[in-house]
TrEMBL record:
Segments forming domain PBP: 20-307
Keyword field: Signal
Protein name as it appears in the record: Phosphate ABC transporter, periplasmic phosphate-binding protein PstS (TC 3.A.1.7.1)
């Protein structure tokens, strides 16, 4: 339960925010993940055609950039929804709370795999996460110490790999794909080396910094949030690899192929059942204070969580979405639409907090 002072303060903030901005917007505004972007735009277009509401405005800002905009405040000048290719972080939720956003609805929409794609004209590639770490890391273990990454070609890492120079186009730090890449590849890969384990025992902060630092010598290139641009670059340079969401691969199977990682190919089946090692859930977050103020907000959520959209036979599957299992999907839809309630629980100060498994 919220205490009285919190409720009054929230109401005052809402009144001032919406009054200051003038008349309420008549169009939903959505920001966030480039991975979720194609799903969100598809739902938005159908929503605009099937209802009397305007087509929502959807911007691809990256998960981190979306969270920053979303958590900036309550009122028509701030987004109503943010898409995310990873779960909201505790520090982001704390920012929301500081800015008067005390009730946020989390909606898990399905799964995605992070793929290392390259042109279909290039030779197929199989690697382990340890080998990928050695290709991406700024420093690697050598002679019982950490040194700047000396590997220039794939064969430098393993004689069985390609004799081409390492060139990987990847996401920037604001991307949820980058966060997931760090957690599922970099952190896992570095734990296989005694030098990193020794560093972990001595200084956990330095351990994380060393494991998660990407090289800056040109082998890894931050290519922005636009997966379509990366696809074009991979077609132009068959020797390069690009880090993409599975949905981008699914839309370009005539041009691209994916690396097999730890003996698992990134297929819908392998991602949904957990066999593919670089898979993550996808989300979007709704600002509950805007429900009833911004026309069509709850109806948009209803369209997105309808069986015709996100089920195994839904239209989003054609865009590359890997649906939730039936039981989880039904529970998510019913819980969301019944009251658009927050997925956390009240904290000691009366504010809604996310579960404690959130990363800092």
């Amino acid at each position: 339960m919220y205490n009285t002072s919190t409720c009054i303060a929230t109401v005052v903030v809402l009144i001032i925010s919406f009054a200051h901005a003038g008349a309420a917007r008549d169009q939903i505004r959505i920001v966030g993940s480039s991975t979720v972007y194609p799903f969100s735009t598809t739902v938005a277009e159908r929503f605009g055609k099937r209802t009397h509401f305007k087509v929502p405005i959807v911007e691809s800002t990256g998960s981190g950039g979306g969270m920053k905009l979303f958590c900036s405040g309550v009122g028509v000048e701030y987004p109503d929804i943010t898409n995310a290719s990873r779960r909201i972080k505790r520090r982001e939720m704390n920012t929301c709370i500081r800015n008067g956003i005390t009730d946020v609805v989390e909606i898990k929409i399905g799964y995605d795999g992070i793929v290392f794609a390259h042109a279909k004209t290039a030779p197929p590639m199989q690697m382990t996460r340890t080998q990928i770490f050695l290709a991406l890391a700024k420093q690697i273990p050598k002679d019982n110490k950490l040194v700047d990454n000396p590997y220039r070609c794939w064969q430098d890492i393993d004689p069985g790999l390609l004799a081409t120079r390492i060139k990987i186009l990847g996401p920037p730090p604001t991307s949820g794909t980058r966060d997931a890449l760090v957690e599922l590849v970099m952190d896992v890969g570095c734990k296989g080396f005694p030098e990193f384990l020794t560093l972990s025992a001595k200084n956990i902060q330095r351990f994380h910094a060393a494991c998660q630092m990407f090289r800056t010598d040109g082998a890894f290139i931050e290519a922005g949030e636009n997966d379509n641009l990366i696809v074009q670059k991979l077609i132009a340079n068959p020797k390069a690899f690009g880090i993409l969401g599975f949905s981008s691969l699914a839309q370009n199977t005539d041009k691209l192929q994916a690396m097999v990682i730890d003996s698992q190919a990134p297929t819908s089946y392998n991602i949904s059942d957990g066999h593919y090692p670089v898979a993550r859930p996808l989300y979007f977050y709704v600002k509950k204070a805007h429900v009833g103020i911004i026309p069509g907000l709850k109806e948009y959520v209803a369209e997105f969580t309808s069986e015709q959209a996100w089920s195994q036979d839904g239209y989003l599957v054609n865009k590359g979405l890997i649906p939730l299992p039936d039981t989880e999907r039904n529970a998510m839809r019913e819980g969301t639409l019944s009251n658009l309630s927050f997925s956390g629980w009240p904290g000691p100060d009366g504010l809604a907090l996310l579960p404690n498994r959130l990363r800092e």
